[in-house]
């Protein structure tokens, strides 16, 4: 979400900080956390909000969480308790959970995990994924509007590709070879979106650009706004890659999705997901299964385990009434012998 989109929704921006470096290295990621911490210390130290609301698992979130901890500002965290073993996001998410004072999870199982980490049950609420609220409320583009905006012919079979670096690996793009070699075997129209800014993204972008230059059937987009992206999910024939949108949002569109490699390993799977190892054969096998009429028919009437798009109402209602005086002091996690004695 860009600043312009936030302002368009009517929310004032009280401060702007410079923290993103022109780097896609792990050192750059670490420096981004440090720069953000310095700037946020001044901003939050002067503002002193009642609660700081953080979402998900991006490494940048460690900065505001650390500052809020030092300033004794209670933290509310959205989407804790999930698992994504192929990215450092997993460790970031768990760190944010332990720093936070109130939690809003996307699924019942995620709520159980947060409680198992020692958080008091009264602090942990199953709300659903807020991204589905945006999807439900947004006025999505029609096929004709998308074709005009993106210069596409969606009457053709179209594959949407969203692939990001695998940050748990030293070589964060080592699984990409299998993806590109598999896609070379296909003749369908493909729409690529740029990867995120994690370490290794520049190398991945360069490889994607070279790949796109080899075929007229490939369209590459640097940045698609959320509404355009969600509209595509409802109009393309398949999503391929390792984006969390393939786990969460695609299910609301009953879109066949091929999830590749480790990045989303461990996340709860809707029934529209087909997992593939980072090998050409495994990826092609999953793509062929996703194309099958039998698989597509089984998705009719499916539900999204990450919610129905009403998370924000619950989150807002709880934050408006939560007893602030109780938040900062968390009770210690019971020892196993204490639990057995109860």
From TrEMBL:
First-level EC class: isomerase
UDP-N-acetylglucosamine 2-epimerase domain location? 6-319
**Enzyme Commission designation:** 5.1.3.14
Taxonomic lineage? unclassified sequences, metagenomes, ecological metagenomes
Could you mention a single GO BP entry for this protein?
UDP-N-acetylglucosamine metabolic process
Keyword match Isomerase: yes
Name-wise, this protein is: Putative UDP-N-acetylglucosamine 2-epimerase
Nuclease among keywords? no
User: What Gene3D superfamilies is this protein classified in?
Assistant: Glycogen Phosphorylase B
GO MF terms here are: hydrolase activity, hydrolyzing O-glycosyl compounds; UDP-N-acetylglucosamine 2-epimerase activity
What InterPro entries does UniProt report for this protein, alphabetically? UDP-GlcNAc_Epase, UDP_GlcNAc_Epimerase_2_dom, WecB-like
- Keyword set, alphabetical order: Isomerase
């Amino acid at each position: 979400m860009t600043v312009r989109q936030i302002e368009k929704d009517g929310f004032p921006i009280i401060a702007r900080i410079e923290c993103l470096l022109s780097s896609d290295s792990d050192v750059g990621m670490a420096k981004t956390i440090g720069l953000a911490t310095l700037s946020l210390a001044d901003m939050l130290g002067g503002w002193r909000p009642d609660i700081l609301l953080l979402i998900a698992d991006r490494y940048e979130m460690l900065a505001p969480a650390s500052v809020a901890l030092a300033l004794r500002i209670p933290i509310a965290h959205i989407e804790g308790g999930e698992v994504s073993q192929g990215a450092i996001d997993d460790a970031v998410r768990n760190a944010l959970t332990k720093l936070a004072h109130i939690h809003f999870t996307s699924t019942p199982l995620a709520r159980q995990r947060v409680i198992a980490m020692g958080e008091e049950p009264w602090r942990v609420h199953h709300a659903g994924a807020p991204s589905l609220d945006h999807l439900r409320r947004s006025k999505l583009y029609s096929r004709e509007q998308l074709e005009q905006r993106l210069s596409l012919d969606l009457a053709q079979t179209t594959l949407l590709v969203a692939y990001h670096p695998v940050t748990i690996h030293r070589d964060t793009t080592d699984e990409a070879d299998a993806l590109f070699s598999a896609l070379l075997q296909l003749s369908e129209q493909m729409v690529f979106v740029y990867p995120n800014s994690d370490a290794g993204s520049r190398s991945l972008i360069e490889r994607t650009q070279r790949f796109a230059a080899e075929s007229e059937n490939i369209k590459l987009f640097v940045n698609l706004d959320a509404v355009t992206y969600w509209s595509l999910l409802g109009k393309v024939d398949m999503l391929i890659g390792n984006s969390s949108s393939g786990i969460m949002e695609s299910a609301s569109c009953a879109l066949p999705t091929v999830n590749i490699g480790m990045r989303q390993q461990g996340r709860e799977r809707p029934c529209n997901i087909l997992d593939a190892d980072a090998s050409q054969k495994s990826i092609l096998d999953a793509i062929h299964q996703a194309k099958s009429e039998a698989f597509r028919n089984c998705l009719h009437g499916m539900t999204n385990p990450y919610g129905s798009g009403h998370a924000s109402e619950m989150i807002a209602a709880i934050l408006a009434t939560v007893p602030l005086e109780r938040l900062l002091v968390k009770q210690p996690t019971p020892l196993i012998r204490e639990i057995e004695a109860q």
